[in-house]
From TrEMBL:
This is Deoxyribose-phosphate aldolase. Belongs to the DeoC/FbaB aldolase family. DeoC type 2 subfamily. Keywords: Lyase, Schiff base. The lineage of its organism: Bacteria, Bacillati, Actinomycetota, Actinomycetes, Glycomycetales. Pathway: Carbohydrate degradation; 2-deoxy-D-ribose 1-phosphate degradation; D-glyceraldehyde 3-phosphate and acetaldehyde from 2-deoxy-alpha-D-ribose 1-phosphate: step 2/2.
Length: 304
């Protein structure tokens, strides 16, 4: 799947997109954030959110032991809680994660393409992607070249995404827009459509490595983009907010927004993910409270 447009056509199309009504967008997000759900629905929402998490460790000090420990937590977070959707690691740890997760159904995602800045030559980004796939990555989380995008070189960004998509082969491609660096809602919309026309399987807000990461208005805007893209092309694309979503209350706001804007077609880990690690601990504690009526204390969950 993917766009049949050329780079020139895709760039022209996204440049012609109408401007975003910022006041209306933020008001809609604020309204959705106030929605409440019943206790029985909350239990279902917590399990749904757990199953949508890409449990992530992206530190220079990552070791095979830390990755194996995180993989064990992903497979069995707590008791009868569902497994998370994926483990997200650097390419150097993909083989370790793949072995630890064998037979579990939990996917291995690898950040590639010079994460988090993306400021390396394209041939190195492609080699990084190909290496991660050879090691067993099921998914590739790539970063776009924000410098090229902000300079207006949309055709270059389009062709680079297409090249990474080809290098990823059968692995699903999540394209990180790094929305905190795109400055405006108009840029977020343009980058979303550019990535989708270039073949993204997911569009993702952030690396988690900058000051401003996922926000509800930005994610709502990206949801509207994937909805409109499917209406125009018949191609469904996933959405992944990442960075800054730390508690159950916030996760439920995002799920309510998915339900309102996109509906049941996107309410699964195949089409919606949370890029988070600390979120899982809060979900587990809230889950325990619903079952027992009390919190189990700070030592109840493992420290990532």
């Amino acid at each position: 799947m993917g766009s049949i447009l050329s780079g020139v056509e895709a760039a022209s199309l996204v440049r012609s997109l109408p401007g975003v009504d910022a006041v209306g967008l933020e008001a809609r997000a604020a309204g959705l954030a106030t929605r409440s759900i019943k206790k029985e629905s909350k239990a279902e929402a917590i399990d749904l959110a757990i199953g949508m998490i890409d449990l992530t460790t992206l530190e220079g000090a990552d070791t095979p032991g830390k990755v194996r420990s995180l993989c064990a937590k992903a497979v069995r977070p707590d008791g009868d809680a569902p497994s998370t959707a994926a483990i997200c690691v650097y390419g150097a740890q993909v083989a370790t994660a793949k072995a630890a997760l064998a037979g579990s159904g939990v996917k291995v995602a690898s950040v590639a393409t010079g994460f988090p800045a993306g400021q390396v030559p394209l041939e190195i980004r492609l080699a990084d992607t190909e290496s991660a796939v050879r090691e067993g990555a099921d998914e590739i989380d790539m970063v776009i070249n924000r410098g090229a995008f902000l300079a207006g070189d949309l055709e270059r960004v389009y062709h680079e995404i297409k090249a990474v998509k080809a290098a990823a082969g059968d692995a699903r491609l999540k394209v990180i827009l790094e929305t905190g660096e795109l400055v405006t809602y108009d840029n977020v919309r343009r980058a979303s459509f550019l990535a989708m026309h270039a073949g993204a399987d997911f569009i993702k807000t952030s690396t988690g490595k900058v000051g401003v990461n996922a926000t509800l208005p930005v994610t709502l805007l990206m949801m509207q983009a994937v909805r409109d893209f499917r209406a125009e092309t018949g191609v469904q694309v996933g959405v992944k907010p990442a960075g800054g979503i730390r508690n159950t209350k916030d996760a439920i706001k995002y799920l309510v927004t998915v339900n309102e804007i996109l509906g049941d077609d996107w309410l699964s880990a195949h089409w919606f993910r949370f890029g988070a690690s600390s979120l899982l601990n809060d979900l587990l504690m809230q889950r325990q409270k619903l079952k027992t009526g009390h919190y189990s204390g700070p030592d109840y969950v493992t420290v990532d």
